[in-house]
């Protein structure tokens, strides 16, 4: 906790009270300071005849506490701004460095971090999500164990990362060992589908190109999902969960699931966070662990 600084007026008041015979503890109780603070100030006055602090070592701050508070209000309004933009918005008529801006952010406990992206939710989305959760808040473990959670994710065949850096000497940018070769449009992609439940995991399915309703039936539902569900008695058959992606909700897919007695879990739109099957995380474990 930062110490309270004594104003010059308070310091002279302390000196005056002590000159009238008041004790250190009496002065401290009246003004709200510890008696050792009073004694140090009186001793300094006896030795130097002054009450001001000596000049502090180091470079003085270029901004006041009031200006720092104004800066924090700006960053709360514009959290995505760069340090250069914040510097201009903060004190446009003052020559400040971006390092000063970063120092103030650091002092406030802030740091530049990766932005979490989430689907934009309308009020209707929020109401439907809440209703979905409330309708299932009393489900027991036995009911949840029947749910088979599925999802798919797209992977580039040649991953490119614009944040890649290379340690090199000057004028060696085009040296072959310093060049990262790229493929137009990522070199193609592959769609990977997976499904898990409390007790099992189904085989991964890879689909080249875009996933259509017909491919979803031929490559995913028929050989994997329906085959797995047929191995369970009708009374205890699992419940299949997939999201509202267009291939999942085509008329042909809906009819196919109904004709094969596959019960599906109703799913609110824009709700990937409600699915415990985090695709990239589980795909990594499917490939590398199991």
Automatic annotation (TrEMBL):
It comes from the Eukaryota. Residues 3-45 form the Transposase IS30-like HTH domain. InterPro entries: Homeodomain-like_sf, IS30-like_HTH, RNaseH_sf, Transposase_5, Transposase_Tc1-like, WH-like_DNA-bd_sf. One of its GO terms (molecular function) is DNA binding. Residues 46-65 are annotated as: Disordered. Gene3D superfamilies: Ribonuclease H-like superfamily/Ribonuclease H (3.30.420.10), Winged helix-like DNA-binding domain superfamily/Winged helix DNA-binding domain (1.10.10.10). GO terms for biological process: DNA integration; DNA transposition. This is Transposase. The lineage of its organism: Eukaryota, Metazoa, Spiralia, Lophotrochozoa, Mollusca.
